[in-house]
């Protein structure tokens, strides 16, 4: 039986969990044990995992089920029947459970009952701080927990937000960063070479403070709020707003980001010149940005009805599998092009 440097216990086998599983399996020095409390999680895993994993992992198996069976038989993938079974020999424990603080707090209390006292503890939370998740745990636990927030889908998206808690030890943070930097990128991206020759794919970023939603989601939700306001006020249709984003902000930010873009837009004066020139307009816009209520009960949410109706009229009640696959191909191509340019900087 081969030896592995890392043994990951992956708690939660939903969409994010399976995508993370595919990510971890791309490291040849890593094996993964999965646990999910749903009684049918093995059936779901076998049905959905093949769409996430690389062709390099399926090998010569034309039948996806045979590929999953081969991973299990080779000890690269194990399916646990309990949390205790999943974590007791793991060197890294990563949770992808629902975004509920009390649920995560209870989970970590159970995990540390059975886990090695030196195991790395990672949370994939999209907004709940590590300090809050283990506030009632012992110091040894608070020192080890780090949020490693991936962007969906993590088996493709390069960003991982690393958010230490108030007592997380620096070496635990450094370990997470080094781990993800060494994960190979997808081998089936358009134009990509062998996965070992692609250069660095994942770009983990360490945040210096804990804030609700971290950084990526705060930026996304800020844009979402203004988009909902503009559509709800009848300024623009949902479809046309999407066209504005995909034909202006999207392509530009994919290559330069916010600050670099406006730094270039300022000409010789850089971003300082940009801020000086656009200060009157920005002041008017910032003062007029929409303030809307997201409450789901008892609130006046006329904007929500408009947004839902126009979005469904434009794109249908749900995203079709054909559309999802087409968008994924586009995403893969964008990431590969971005990575080629990034590697030359």
UniProtKB/TrEMBL annotation:
GO cellular component annotations of the record: cytoplasm
Pfam families: 3HCDH, 3HCDH_N
Keyword tags: Cytoplasm, NAD, Oxidoreductase, Phosphoprotein
Entry's localization field: Cytoplasm
GO molecular function annotations of the record: L-gulonate 3-dehydrogenase activity; NAD+ binding
E.C. number: 1.1.1.45
Top enzyme class: oxidoreductase
UniProt cross-references to SUPFAM superfamilies, sorted A to Z: 6-phosphogluconate dehydrogenase C-terminal domain-like, NAD(P)-binding Rossmann-fold domains
PANTHER family: 3-HYDROXYACYL-COA DEHYDROGENASE FAMILY PROTEIN, LAMBDA-CRYSTALLIN HOMOLOG
Protein name: L-gulonate 3-dehydrogenase
Taxonomic source organism: Penicillium atrosanguineum
């Amino acid at each position: 039986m081969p030896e592995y440097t890392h043994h990951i216990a992956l708690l939660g086998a939903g969409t994010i969990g399976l995508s993370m599983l595919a990510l971890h399996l791309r490291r040849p020095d890593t094996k993964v044990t999965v646990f999910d409390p749903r009684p049918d999680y093995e059936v779901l895993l076998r049905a959905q995992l093949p769409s996430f994993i690389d062709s390099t992992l399926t090998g010569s198996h034309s039948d996806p089920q045979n590929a999953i069976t081969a991973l299990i038989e080779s000890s690269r993938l194990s399916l646990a029947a309990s949390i205790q079974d999943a974590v007791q020999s793991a060197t890294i424990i990563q949770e992808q459970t629902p975004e509920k603080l009390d649920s995560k707090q209870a989970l970590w209390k159970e995990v540390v009952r059975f886990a090695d006292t030196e195991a790395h503890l990672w949370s994939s939370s999209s907004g709940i701080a590590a300090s809050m998740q283990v506030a009632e745990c012992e110091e040894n636990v608070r020192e080890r927990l780090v949020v490693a927030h991936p962007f969906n889908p993590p088996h493709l998206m390069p960003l991982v937000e690393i958010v230490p808690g108030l007592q997380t030890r620096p070496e635990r943070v450094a370990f997470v960063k080094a781990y993800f930097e060494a994960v190979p990128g997808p081998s089936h991206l358009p134009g990509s070479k062998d996965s070992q020759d692609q250069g660095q794919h994942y770009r983990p970023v360490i945040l210096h403070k804990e804030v609700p939603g971290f950084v990526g989601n705060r930026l996304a939700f800020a844009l979402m709020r203004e988009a909902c306001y503009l559509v709800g006020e009848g300024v623009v249709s949902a479809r046309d707003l999407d066209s504005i984003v995909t034909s202006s902000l999207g392509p530009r930010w994919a290559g330069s980001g916010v600050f670099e873009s406006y730094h270039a837009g300022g000409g010789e004066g850089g971003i300082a010149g940009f801020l000086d020139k656009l200060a009157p307009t920005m002041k008017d816009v910032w003062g007029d940005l929409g303030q809307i209520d997201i409450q789901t009960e008892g609130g006046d949410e006329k904007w929500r009805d408009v947004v839902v109706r126009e979005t469904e009229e434009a794109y249908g009640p749900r995203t079709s599998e054909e559309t999802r696959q087409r968008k994924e191909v586009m995403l893969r191509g964008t990431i590969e092009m971005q990575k080629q340019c990034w590697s030359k900087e």
